[in-house]
Amino acid sequence: MSRTTPEEAFAEAQAAIERGDWDSFFACLDSDDLLRIAENSLARFLMGGETTAPILTALCSEHAVPEERVVVLRTLLQRIAESGRASVSLVGSTEPGAMLQQSLRHKQIVDEYQKALKAMLRAVPELSRFTAALERAMRAAEGGGSVSSKLLVDEVLEDVSITGTRAWATRRTASGQSEDVGFVRRKGAWYVRVFARRPAKSRG
């Protein structure tokens, strides 16, 4: 499909996930969704230690992700772990301000990690393909991924409302539950925003 309408984008994403085609599914998602999913997948690989390290190294090489960016992330994760242990050791400390200072230091390291993670993913040449590769590898290694294989399955799209390059609609499950779903148009094609939340003023 060409995804010239939100309905076409939704139908294409739905068909892709129903047949387990992660490349096609992620190609339908907006970049914000891709970043969120890839961040989670990458974090799980990084925290997997030596077990997942070779898998991640191979994926990064395949998708032109510089190894030094992964090294930076691993180093920051080690610093976060060390900082966490330091925080625990200060529990019950009588030194004024010690816990506060340690908490601020810990937050700074976490912020550095998040910034480095986002910068790495934004530098990936084809984020949708990299996200799909992470999903497949994670499912092979752990039996599950960052996205439910039931997402969008047997759902219907209702009440599509388009304003310029943005659109909102409702996804309704077979059981009758409903959730918002957003869309954005870029270069003539619509992309799905599964995790977007409709602004209150747009509800009607």
What does this entry look like structurally?
The chain folds into two domains: 6-20 and 149-202; 37-142, no CATH class. Helix 4 (53-62) packs antiparallel against helix 7 (127-142). Helices cover 53% and strands 14% of the residues. It has 204 residues and is an alpha+beta fold. A hairpin with a 5-residue loop joins strand 2 and strand 3 (178-186). It has a four-stranded antiparallel β-sheet, covered by helices on one side. The longest helix is centred in the middle third of the chain and has 25 residues, at 98-122. 26% of the residues are buried.
Short overview:
Helix content is 53%, strand content 14%.
Entry keywords:
single chain; 204 residues; alpha+beta; four-stranded antiparallel β-sheet; 7 helices
Strand order of the largest sheet: 1-2-3-4
**Roughly what percent helix?**
40-55%
**How much beta, percentage-wise?**
5-15%
Total helix count? 7
Q: What's the main sheet like? A: 4 strands, antiparallel
Average pLDDT score: 90
Counted up, domains total 2
* Overall spatial form: globular
Q: Can you write the helix and strand succession as a string? A: HHHHHHHEEEE
Separation of termini? 30 Å
Structural class: alpha+beta
Flag low-confidence runs: none
Rg measurement, Å: 20 Å
Number of strands: 4
